[in-house]
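re: that chain from earlier
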Amino acid sequence: MAWMLCKCGETLSTVQVPNEIELYVYTDFEMDEINAMEINDPLDIPDPERDVWRCPHCERIHVFDGDKVIKTYVLEEDEEEENGEK
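^ sequence. v structure.
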């Protein structure tokens, strides 16, 4: 997948490399497997199991299984910020 429309209306695209949309997120198990490999070139590091994108406008996090969004997370406001405190 190279682009999608976020629920906030922002167009997200990973066509340009590097970009601020695509995040590389690994589980501890995936990192253990990567650390056990003899990797001499960073390009040999395997891709994570899931693609994770962050919208730069609303900061929603979208988790993909293949080309399908399976989870979307929305940030909650901190209680202090909601009450005008910091």
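The first strand starts at residue 3 and ends at 5.
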